[in-house]
UniProtKB/TrEMBL annotation:
PROSITE patterns: RADICAL_SAM (PS51918). InterPro entries: Coproporphyrinogen-III_oxidase, Elp3/MiaA/NifB-like_rSAM, rSAM, rSAM_sf. Gene3D superfamilies: 3.30.750.200. This is Heme chaperone HemW.
Protein backbone atom coordinates (compact mmCIF):
# COMPACT_ATOMS: atom_id res chain seq x y z
CA UNK A 1 0.00 0.00 0.00
CA UNK A 2 1.28 3.47 -0.82
CA UNK A 3 1.60 5.90 2.07
CA UNK A 4 -0.09 9.12 0.93
CA UNK A 5 0.49 11.18 4.11
CA UNK A 6 3.38 13.36 2.97
CA UNK A 7 2.47 13.35 -0.69
CA UNK A 8 0.15 15.57 -2.69
CA UNK A 9 -3.24 14.20 -3.72
CA UNK A 10 -2.66 11.76 -6.58
CA UNK A 11 -5.62 12.68 -8.79
CA UNK A 12 -5.59 16.41 -9.47
CA UNK A 13 -5.34 17.03 -13.18
CA UNK A 14 -5.11 14.77 -16.20
CA UNK A 15 -2.64 16.68 -18.37
CA UNK A 16 -3.34 15.32 -21.85
CA UNK A 17 -2.69 18.73 -23.38
CA UNK A 18 -1.06 21.89 -22.12
CA UNK A 19 -2.41 24.49 -21.64
CA UNK A 20 -5.91 23.22 -20.91
CA UNK A 21 -8.81 24.80 -22.77
CA UNK A 22 -9.96 26.47 -19.54
CA UNK A 23 -6.89 28.71 -20.00
CA UNK A 24 -8.06 29.80 -23.47
CA UNK A 25 -9.71 33.18 -23.89
CA UNK A 26 -11.36 35.10 -26.75
CA UNK A 27 -8.65 36.27 -29.16
CA UNK A 28 -9.00 39.99 -29.86
CA UNK A 29 -8.68 40.95 -32.58
CA UNK A 30 -9.37 37.56 -34.10
CA UNK A 31 -6.25 36.52 -36.02
CA UNK A 32 -6.54 35.22 -39.57
CA UNK A 33 -5.76 31.50 -39.68
CA UNK A 34 -3.61 32.12 -42.76
CA UNK A 35 -1.43 34.46 -40.64
CA UNK A 36 -1.20 31.96 -37.78
CA UNK A 37 0.10 29.28 -40.15
CA UNK A 38 2.31 31.56 -42.23
CA UNK A 39 5.93 30.49 -41.77
CA UNK A 40 4.98 27.33 -39.86
CA UNK A 41 6.32 23.95 -40.88
CA UNK A 42 3.45 22.03 -42.51
CA UNK A 43 5.34 18.93 -43.60
CA UNK A 44 4.46 16.81 -40.52
CA UNK A 45 1.02 17.76 -39.25
CA UNK A 46 -1.58 15.89 -37.26
CA UNK A 47 -5.23 16.07 -38.36
CA UNK A 48 -8.03 15.78 -35.83
CA UNK A 49 -11.76 15.83 -36.63
CA UNK A 50 -14.13 16.24 -33.71
CA UNK A 51 -17.68 14.82 -33.62
CA UNK A 52 -19.48 16.26 -30.58
CA UNK A 53 -22.39 13.80 -30.33
CA UNK A 54 -23.03 10.86 -27.99
CA UNK A 55 -26.03 8.62 -27.28
CA UNK A 56 -25.68 9.19 -23.52
CA UNK A 57 -23.68 11.53 -21.34
CA UNK A 58 -21.38 9.39 -19.21
CA UNK A 59 -21.29 10.53 -15.60
CA UNK A 60 -17.54 11.12 -15.54
CA UNK A 61 -17.22 12.93 -18.87
CA UNK A 62 -16.29 16.60 -19.21
CA UNK A 63 -15.52 16.45 -22.92
CA UNK A 64 -17.22 18.78 -25.33
CA UNK A 65 -20.21 16.74 -26.50
CA UNK A 66 -24.01 16.67 -26.47
CA UNK A 67 -26.57 13.89 -26.22
CA UNK A 68 -28.33 13.12 -29.50
CA UNK A 69 -28.59 15.17 -32.66
CA UNK A 70 -32.16 16.16 -33.52
CA UNK A 71 -33.52 17.48 -36.81
CA UNK A 72 -30.67 16.67 -39.15
CA UNK A 73 -28.08 18.27 -36.90
CA UNK A 74 -25.35 15.79 -37.90
CA UNK A 75 -25.84 16.72 -41.55
CA UNK A 76 -25.61 20.43 -40.77
CA UNK A 77 -22.55 19.75 -38.64
CA UNK A 78 -20.82 17.95 -41.52
CA UNK A 79 -21.75 20.85 -43.82
CA UNK A 80 -20.04 23.25 -41.40
CA UNK A 81 -17.07 20.90 -41.04
CA UNK A 82 -16.69 20.97 -44.81
CA UNK A 83 -16.79 24.78 -44.86
CA UNK A 84 -14.21 24.94 -42.08
CA UNK A 85 -11.96 22.38 -43.81
CA UNK A 86 -12.08 24.36 -47.06
CA UNK A 87 -11.17 27.58 -45.24
CA UNK A 88 -8.34 25.99 -43.27
CA UNK A 89 -6.90 24.15 -46.26
CA UNK A 90 -6.89 27.41 -48.22
CA UNK A 91 -5.21 29.17 -45.28
CA UNK A 92 -2.41 26.59 -45.22
CA UNK A 93 -1.57 27.58 -48.78
CA UNK A 94 0.49 25.68 -51.30
CA UNK A 95 3.87 27.38 -51.15
CA UNK A 96 5.10 24.78 -48.62
CA UNK A 97 4.15 21.10 -48.88
CA UNK A 98 1.23 20.23 -46.59
CA UNK A 99 1.43 16.68 -45.29
CA UNK A 100 -0.54 14.96 -42.54
CA UNK A 101 1.51 12.32 -40.74
CA UNK A 102 -1.48 10.93 -38.86
CA UNK A 103 -5.20 11.48 -38.41
CA UNK A 104 -7.82 10.88 -35.75
CA UNK A 105 -11.59 11.11 -35.43
CA UNK A 106 -12.55 11.80 -31.83
CA UNK A 107 -15.42 13.11 -29.81
CA UNK A 108 -17.89 12.72 -28.50
CA UNK A 109 -18.46 9.55 -30.42
CA UNK A 110 -17.47 9.63 -34.10
CA UNK A 111 -19.43 6.41 -34.73
CA UNK A 112 -22.57 8.25 -33.63
CA UNK A 113 -22.51 9.19 -37.33
CA UNK A 114 -24.18 6.72 -39.66
CA UNK A 115 -22.18 4.88 -42.32
CA UNK A 116 -22.95 7.39 -45.07
CA UNK A 117 -22.01 10.26 -42.77
CA UNK A 118 -18.73 8.56 -41.87
CA UNK A 119 -18.01 8.36 -45.59
CA UNK A 120 -18.53 12.13 -45.75
CA UNK A 121 -16.21 12.58 -42.76
CA UNK A 122 -13.45 10.56 -44.45
CA UNK A 123 -14.02 12.52 -47.66
CA UNK A 124 -13.45 15.79 -45.79
CA UNK A 125 -10.17 14.49 -44.36
CA UNK A 126 -9.03 13.06 -47.67
CA UNK A 127 -10.44 15.20 -50.44
CA UNK A 128 -10.66 18.60 -48.77
CA UNK A 129 -7.67 18.46 -46.41
CA UNK A 130 -5.54 16.15 -48.53
CA UNK A 131 -4.74 13.56 -45.84
CA UNK A 132 -3.75 10.19 -47.29
CA UNK A 133 -5.80 8.15 -44.82
CA UNK A 134 -4.72 4.76 -46.16
CA UNK A 135 -1.03 5.60 -45.82
CA UNK A 136 -0.89 7.01 -42.28
CA UNK A 137 -2.12 5.94 -38.83
CA UNK A 138 -5.85 6.74 -38.47
CA UNK A 139 -7.40 6.38 -35.02
CA UNK A 140 -11.18 6.42 -34.38
CA UNK A 141 -13.12 6.39 -31.11
CA UNK A 142 -16.32 4.36 -30.77
CA UNK A 143 -18.89 3.24 -28.23
CA UNK A 144 -20.24 -0.32 -28.10
CA UNK A 145 -23.74 0.41 -29.38
CA UNK A 146 -22.59 2.63 -32.25
CA UNK A 147 -19.82 0.25 -33.41
CA UNK A 148 -22.14 -1.33 -35.97
CA UNK A 149 -20.88 -3.55 -38.78
CA UNK A 150 -21.70 -1.06 -41.55
CA UNK A 151 -19.98 1.87 -39.79
CA UNK A 152 -16.92 -0.23 -38.94
CA UNK A 153 -16.89 -1.41 -42.55
CA UNK A 154 -16.61 2.16 -43.83
CA UNK A 155 -13.87 2.99 -41.33
CA UNK A 156 -11.85 -0.14 -42.11
CA UNK A 157 -12.17 0.38 -45.85
CA UNK A 158 -11.00 3.99 -45.55
CA UNK A 159 -7.81 3.02 -43.71
CA UNK A 160 -8.53 3.04 -39.97
CA UNK A 161 -5.55 1.51 -38.15
CA UNK A 162 -6.80 1.90 -34.58
CA UNK A 163 -10.29 1.57 -33.13
CA UNK A 164 -10.69 2.69 -29.53
CA UNK A 165 -13.73 1.35 -27.68
CA UNK A 166 -14.93 3.06 -24.51
CA UNK A 167 -15.97 0.10 -22.34
CA UNK A 168 -15.11 1.42 -18.83
CA UNK A 169 -16.37 -1.73 -17.05
CA UNK A 170 -17.56 -5.20 -18.02
CA UNK A 171 -19.80 -5.25 -14.93
CA UNK A 172 -23.28 -3.95 -15.74
CA UNK A 173 -23.82 -2.48 -12.24
CA UNK A 174 -20.52 -0.59 -12.40
CA UNK A 175 -21.37 0.78 -15.82
CA UNK A 176 -24.64 2.04 -14.38
CA UNK A 177 -22.84 3.55 -11.36
CA UNK A 178 -20.57 5.48 -13.73
CA UNK A 179 -23.71 6.68 -15.54
CA UNK A 180 -22.85 4.77 -18.66
CA UNK A 181 -25.62 2.21 -18.81
CA UNK A 182 -24.71 -0.71 -21.06
CA UNK A 183 -24.90 -4.50 -20.98
CA UNK A 184 -21.83 -6.68 -21.09
CA UNK A 185 -23.40 -8.81 -23.81
CA UNK A 186 -23.61 -5.74 -26.05
CA UNK A 187 -20.00 -4.81 -25.29
CA UNK A 188 -18.78 -8.31 -26.15
CA UNK A 189 -20.79 -8.26 -29.38
CA UNK A 190 -19.21 -4.91 -30.36
CA UNK A 191 -15.74 -6.26 -29.65
CA UNK A 192 -16.53 -9.23 -31.87
CA UNK A 193 -17.60 -6.94 -34.71
CA UNK A 194 -14.40 -4.92 -34.38
CA UNK A 195 -12.26 -8.06 -34.46
CA UNK A 196 -14.18 -9.16 -37.58
CA UNK A 197 -12.75 -6.15 -39.42
CA UNK A 198 -9.11 -5.94 -40.44
CA UNK A 199 -8.43 -2.88 -38.28
CA UNK A 200 -5.07 -3.88 -36.81
CA UNK A 201 -5.15 -2.12 -33.44
CA UNK A 202 -7.97 -2.42 -30.90
CA UNK A 203 -7.85 -0.22 -27.81
CA UNK A 204 -10.12 -0.81 -24.82
CA UNK A 205 -10.72 1.92 -22.22
CA UNK A 206 -11.39 0.83 -18.64
CA UNK A 207 -12.06 2.94 -15.52
CA UNK A 208 -11.09 2.25 -11.92
CA UNK A 209 -12.51 3.86 -8.81
CA UNK A 210 -16.17 3.33 -9.73
CA UNK A 211 -18.58 3.19 -6.81
CA UNK A 212 -18.91 -0.44 -5.70
CA UNK A 213 -15.88 -1.64 -7.63
CA UNK A 214 -13.68 -4.14 -5.75
CA UNK A 215 -10.33 -5.74 -6.42
CA UNK A 216 -12.21 -8.82 -7.66
CA UNK A 217 -14.60 -6.96 -9.96
CA UNK A 218 -11.72 -4.84 -11.32
CA UNK A 219 -9.81 -8.03 -12.08
CA UNK A 220 -12.87 -9.41 -13.81
CA UNK A 221 -13.03 -6.38 -16.12
CA UNK A 222 -9.31 -6.57 -16.80
CA UNK A 223 -9.54 -10.25 -17.70
CA UNK A 224 -12.62 -9.71 -19.85
CA UNK A 225 -10.67 -7.08 -21.78
CA UNK A 226 -7.56 -9.28 -21.99
CA UNK A 227 -9.62 -12.10 -23.48
CA UNK A 228 -9.73 -10.01 -26.68
CA UNK A 229 -5.93 -9.55 -26.64
CA UNK A 230 -6.33 -5.84 -27.41
CA UNK A 231 -3.19 -4.22 -28.79
CA UNK A 232 -3.73 -1.32 -26.37
CA UNK A 233 -5.52 -0.86 -23.06
CA UNK A 234 -6.07 2.46 -21.28
CA UNK A 235 -6.74 2.41 -17.54
CA UNK A 236 -8.37 5.66 -16.40
CA UNK A 237 -8.89 6.75 -12.81
CA UNK A 238 -12.43 7.95 -12.26
CA UNK A 239 -12.69 11.69 -11.70
CA UNK A 240 -15.58 13.75 -10.41
CA UNK A 241 -15.58 17.00 -12.33
CA UNK A 242 -17.69 20.13 -12.25
CA UNK A 243 -21.01 19.96 -14.12
CA UNK A 244 -20.71 16.28 -15.07
CA UNK A 245 -23.33 13.69 -14.13
CA UNK A 246 -21.30 12.45 -11.18
CA UNK A 247 -20.26 15.98 -10.24
CA UNK A 248 -23.89 16.91 -9.67
CA UNK A 249 -24.50 13.95 -7.35
CA UNK A 250 -21.35 13.66 -5.27
CA UNK A 251 -19.44 15.94 -2.94
CA UNK A 252 -16.12 15.98 -4.81
CA UNK A 253 -13.98 16.76 -1.78
CA UNK A 254 -15.36 13.91 0.29
CA UNK A 255 -15.43 11.58 -2.68
CA UNK A 256 -11.85 12.23 -3.73
CA UNK A 257 -10.61 11.89 -0.18
CA UNK A 258 -12.20 8.45 0.13
CA UNK A 259 -11.04 7.41 -3.30
CA UNK A 260 -7.39 8.26 -3.37
CA UNK A 261 -6.13 5.14 -1.71
CA UNK A 262 -8.64 2.90 -3.41
CA UNK A 263 -7.74 4.27 -6.84
CA UNK A 264 -4.02 3.94 -6.19
CA UNK A 265 -4.55 0.31 -5.23
CA UNK A 266 -6.65 -0.44 -8.33
CA UNK A 267 -4.03 1.31 -10.46
CA UNK A 268 -1.25 -0.88 -9.09
CA UNK A 269 -3.31 -4.05 -9.47
CA UNK A 270 -4.19 -3.15 -13.06
CA UNK A 271 -0.66 -2.17 -13.97
CA UNK A 272 0.89 -5.29 -12.46
CA UNK A 273 -1.66 -7.55 -14.12
CA UNK A 274 -1.13 -6.05 -17.57
CA UNK A 275 2.65 -6.16 -17.22
CA UNK A 276 2.39 -9.85 -16.28
CA UNK A 277 0.15 -10.47 -19.29
CA UNK A 278 2.68 -9.24 -21.85
CA UNK A 279 1.98 -5.51 -21.99
CA UNK A 280 4.38 -2.63 -21.65
CA UNK A 281 3.50 0.64 -19.91
CA UNK A 282 3.60 3.69 -22.16
CA UNK A 283 2.25 6.23 -19.66
CA UNK A 284 0.24 6.17 -16.44
CA UNK A 285 -2.89 5.29 -18.42
CA UNK A 286 -1.64 3.57 -21.55
CA UNK A 287 -0.46 -0.02 -21.97
CA UNK A 288 0.56 -1.63 -25.26
CA UNK A 289 0.82 -5.33 -26.04
CA UNK A 290 4.49 -6.17 -26.55
CA UNK A 291 3.80 -7.96 -29.84
CA UNK A 292 1.30 -5.39 -31.17
CA UNK A 293 1.78 -4.64 -34.87
CA UNK A 294 3.05 -1.18 -35.79
CA UNK A 295 0.37 1.14 -37.17
CA UNK A 296 2.51 2.29 -40.05
CA UNK A 297 4.99 5.12 -40.40
CA UNK A 298 4.33 7.98 -37.99
CA UNK A 299 7.02 10.63 -37.75
CA UNK A 300 4.79 13.12 -35.93
CA UNK A 301 6.20 14.52 -32.65
CA UNK A 302 3.31 15.66 -30.47
CA UNK A 303 5.53 17.95 -28.40
CA UNK A 304 6.68 20.10 -31.28
CA UNK A 305 4.75 19.50 -34.53
CA UNK A 306 1.59 21.33 -35.51
CA UNK A 307 -1.98 20.08 -35.36
CA UNK A 308 -5.04 20.98 -37.39
CA UNK A 309 -8.27 20.42 -35.48
CA UNK A 310 -11.60 20.63 -37.28
CA UNK A 311 -14.98 20.73 -35.54
CA UNK A 312 -16.22 22.90 -32.73
CA UNK A 313 -14.45 21.03 -29.90
CA UNK A 314 -11.13 20.58 -31.67
CA UNK A 315 -7.94 22.48 -30.92
CA UNK A 316 -5.30 23.52 -33.42
CA UNK A 317 -1.65 24.10 -32.56
CA UNK A 318 0.85 26.31 -34.29
CA UNK A 319 4.20 26.95 -32.63
CA UNK A 320 2.95 30.31 -31.36
CA UNK A 321 -0.80 29.98 -30.79
CA UNK A 322 -3.20 27.24 -29.66
CA UNK A 323 -6.76 27.93 -30.75
CA UNK A 324 -10.22 26.44 -30.78
CA UNK A 325 -13.83 27.52 -30.35
CA UNK A 326 -15.72 28.35 -27.17
CA UNK A 327 -15.71 25.59 -24.53
CA UNK A 328 -18.39 24.38 -22.11
CA UNK A 329 -19.61 21.22 -20.40
CA UNK A 330 -23.18 22.07 -19.33
CA UNK A 331 -25.68 20.73 -21.90
CA UNK A 332 -27.39 24.01 -22.75
CA UNK A 333 -24.09 25.80 -23.30
CA UNK A 334 -22.72 22.96 -25.45
CA UNK A 335 -25.87 22.95 -27.59
CA UNK A 336 -25.58 26.71 -28.12
CA UNK A 337 -21.92 26.47 -29.17
CA UNK A 338 -22.71 23.67 -31.65
CA UNK A 339 -25.61 25.67 -33.07
CA UNK A 340 -23.33 28.69 -33.52
CA UNK A 341 -20.75 26.48 -35.22
CA UNK A 342 -23.23 24.96 -37.68
CA UNK A 343 -24.45 28.46 -38.60
CA UNK A 344 -20.93 29.80 -39.19
CA UNK A 345 -19.99 30.62 -42.75
CA UNK A 346 -16.67 32.39 -42.19
CA UNK A 347 -14.01 30.09 -40.73
CA UNK A 348 -11.03 32.18 -41.74
CA UNK A 349 -10.29 33.50 -38.24
CA UNK A 350 -9.47 31.92 -34.88
CA UNK A 351 -11.91 32.79 -32.10
CA UNK A 352 -10.54 31.43 -28.80
CA UNK A 353 -7.06 30.41 -27.81
CA UNK A 354 -3.83 31.20 -26.07
CA UNK A 355 -0.49 32.57 -27.20
CA UNK A 356 2.31 30.08 -26.59
CA UNK A 357 5.56 31.90 -25.88
CA UNK A 358 8.95 30.27 -25.41
CA UNK A 359 8.36 29.58 -21.72
CA UNK A 360 5.00 27.89 -22.36
CA UNK A 361 6.43 25.86 -25.24
CA UNK A 362 9.18 24.60 -22.95
CA UNK A 363 6.72 23.68 -20.20
CA UNK A 364 4.55 21.87 -22.73
CA UNK A 365 7.47 19.89 -24.08
CA UNK A 366 8.61 18.98 -20.60
CA UNK A 367 5.14 17.87 -19.47
CA UNK A 368 4.31 15.85 -22.56
CA UNK A 369 7.71 14.13 -22.45
CA UNK A 370 8.07 13.55 -18.73
CA UNK A 371 4.63 11.94 -18.41
CA UNK A 372 5.63 9.19 -20.87
CA UNK A 373 7.08 6.08 -19.24
CA UNK A 374 10.22 6.37 -21.38
CA UNK A 375 10.90 9.94 -20.31
CA UNK A 376 13.10 12.01 -22.57
CA UNK A 377 16.65 12.80 -23.60
CA UNK A 378 18.20 15.77 -21.82
CA UNK A 379 20.52 16.35 -24.80
CA UNK A 380 17.55 16.64 -27.18
CA UNK A 381 15.86 18.99 -24.77
CA UNK A 382 18.98 21.13 -24.53
CA UNK A 383 19.16 21.22 -28.32
CA UNK A 384 15.62 22.62 -28.47
CA UNK A 385 15.64 25.02 -25.52
CA UNK A 386 19.30 25.78 -24.94
CA UNK A 387 19.43 24.64 -21.33
CA UNK A 388 19.21 21.60 -19.11
CA UNK A 389 15.66 21.13 -17.75
CA UNK A 390 17.21 20.54 -14.32
CA UNK A 391 18.47 24.13 -14.43
CA UNK A 392 15.27 25.67 -15.76
CA UNK A 393 12.95 23.68 -13.48
CA UNK A 394 15.24 22.87 -10.58
CA UNK A 395 12.58 23.45 -7.90
CA UNK A 396 9.91 21.34 -9.59
CA UNK A 397 12.22 18.51 -10.62
CA UNK A 398 13.99 18.68 -7.24
CA UNK A 399 10.74 18.06 -5.41
CA UNK A 400 9.92 15.13 -7.71
CA UNK A 401 13.31 13.63 -6.88
CA UNK A 402 12.76 14.13 -3.14
CA UNK A 403 9.49 12.23 -3.34
CA UNK A 404 11.18 9.35 -5.14
CA UNK A 405 9.29 10.06 -8.35
CA UNK A 406 12.32 10.17 -10.66
CA UNK A 407 14.19 7.14 -11.88
CA UNK A 408 17.94 6.99 -11.97
CA UNK A 409 18.07 6.69 -15.74
CA UNK A 410 21.52 8.21 -16.23
CA UNK A 411 22.49 11.80 -16.70
CA UNK A 412 21.09 12.08 -20.24
CA UNK A 413 17.62 10.80 -19.50
CA UNK A 414 14.86 12.15 -17.31
CA UNK A 415 12.31 9.49 -16.50
CA UNK A 416 9.68 8.89 -13.85
CA UNK A 417 10.00 6.04 -11.38
CA UNK A 418 7.07 3.58 -11.11
CA UNK A 419 5.85 5.57 -8.10
CA UNK A 420 6.21 8.78 -10.08
CA UNK A 421 4.15 7.38 -12.95
CA UNK A 422 1.40 6.49 -10.47
CA UNK A 423 1.38 10.15 -9.39
CA UNK A 424 1.40 11.60 -12.92
CA UNK A 425 -1.84 13.51 -12.28
CA UNK A 426 -0.33 15.16 -9.20
CA UNK A 427 2.87 16.43 -10.77
CA UNK A 428 1.43 17.89 -13.96
CA UNK A 429 0.02 21.05 -12.35
CA UNK A 430 3.39 21.78 -10.69
CA UNK A 431 4.79 22.60 -14.13
CA UNK A 432 1.97 24.94 -15.18
CA UNK A 433 3.08 28.55 -15.57
CA UNK A 434 1.67 31.11 -13.11
CA UNK A 435 -0.27 32.72 -15.98
CA UNK A 436 -1.90 29.45 -17.02
CA UNK A 437 -2.72 28.60 -13.42
CA UNK A 438 -4.34 32.00 -12.95
CA UNK A 439 -6.36 31.66 -16.16
CA UNK A 440 -7.56 28.17 -15.21
CA UNK A 441 -8.48 29.35 -11.70
CA UNK A 442 -10.42 32.32 -13.10
CA UNK A 443 -12.32 30.15 -15.60
CA UNK A 444 -16.01 29.92 -14.80
CA UNK A 445 -17.27 26.40 -15.44
CA UNK A 446 -20.41 26.43 -17.53
S1 LIG B 1 -17.05 9.45 -22.23
FE1 LIG B 1 -17.15 9.34 -24.46
S2 LIG B 1 -19.14 8.32 -24.86
FE2 LIG B 1 -19.22 9.07 -22.76
S3 LIG B 1 -20.17 11.10 -22.92
FE3 LIG B 1 -17.95 11.41 -22.95
S4 LIG B 1 -17.42 11.48 -25.10
FE4 LIG B 1 -19.46 10.57 -24.96
Amino acid sequence: MIDTVALPRPYQNYVYAYPHKTAYRPLTPRPAIADLWSGESTSTLSLYLHIPFCEVRCGFCNLFTRVGAPDGLTGRYLDALTRQAEAVRAALGDTEPVRFANAAFGGGTPTFLEAGELTRLCDIAEHVMGADLRAVPLSVEASPSTATADRLGVLAERGTTRLSLGVQSFIDEEARAAVRPQRRADVEAALGRIRDTDIPVLNIDLIYGIDGQTAASWRLSLDAALAWRPEEIYLYPLYVRPLTGLGRNVDPVAAEHDWDEQRLRRYEEGRDHLLAEGYTQVSMRMFRRLDAPPQGPDDYACQTDGMIGLGCGARSYTSGVHYSFDYAVAPREVRAIIDTYTATTDFTRAAYGRVIDGDEAERRYLLQSLLQADGFSVAEYRGLFGRDPRDGFSTELGSLAERGWLDDAGSDRLRLSPRGLAYSDAMGPEFFSPAVRAAMAAYEHR
